């Protein structure tokens, strides 16, 4: 069984037994998590939903900005390619910005 990232949200979410949680950032966070391949899913430690958008954090300390609730499946595929490139080139990356998936931005660690 593959590891699954922790999904966190801003603000409290009241859930009762048998209820489906209803939170505006939960669905895009789940869509992104589902879009990840099992291999990349093990590299993601947390997916966080907030009013400003969805963030993901890798086990290696890279913050991934995903933006709002659009193109989460495509962003998952792009992230997989970028993480592979970062590993293959031994790049020191602190942040990946995928808010605009057609032009991702990688920021190096300082």
Summarize the structure.
This protein is α/β, with parallel strands linked by helices. The chain has three helices and six strands, in the order E-H-H-E-E-E-H-E-E.
Topology diagram in text:
Layout (H helix, E strand, L loop, with lengths): L5 E4 L16 H10 L2 H6 E7 L2 E6 L4 E5 L4 H17 L4 E5 L7 E4 L2
Parallel strand pairs: 1-2, 4-5
Antiparallel strand pairs: 2-3, 3-4, 5-6
Helix pairs in contact: 1-3
Describe the structure.
The chain starts with 5 loop residues before the first strand and ends with a strand. It is globular. The chain has 110 residues and is α/β, with parallel strands linked by helices. Helix 1 packs across helix 3. It has helices spanning 26-35, 38-43, 72-88; strands at 6-9, 44-50, 53-58, 63-67, 93-97, 105-108.
Indicate the radius of gyration in whole angstroms: 14 Å
User: Any idea what the shape is?
Assistant: globular
- Backbone structural class: alpha/beta
Cα distance spanning the termini: 36 Å
Low-confidence stretches: none
Beta-strand percentage range: 25-35%
The assembly state of the depicted protein chains is single chain
Helix content: 25-40%
Neighbour order of strands in the largest sheet:
1-2-3-4-5-6
Sheet with the most strands?
A: 6 strands, mixed
Counted by DSSP, the helix tally is: 3
* Strand segment count: 6
Mean pLDDT: 91
Give me the strand/helix succession. Answer: EHHEEEHEE
């Amino acid at each position: 069984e593959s590891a699954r990232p922790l999904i966190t949200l801003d603000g409290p979410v009241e859930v009762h037994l048998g209820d489906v949680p209803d939170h505006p950032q939960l669905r895009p966070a789940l869509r992104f998590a589902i879009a990840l391949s099992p291999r990349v899913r093990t590299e993601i430690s947390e997916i966080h939903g907030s009013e400003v958008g969805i963030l993901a954090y890798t086990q290696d300390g890279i913050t991934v900005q995903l933006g709002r609730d659009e193109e989460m499946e495509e962003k998952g595929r792009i992230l997989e390619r970028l993480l592979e490139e970062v590993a293959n080139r031994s790049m020191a990356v602190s942040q990946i910005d995928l808010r605009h998936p057609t032009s991702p931005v990688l920021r190096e660690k300082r």
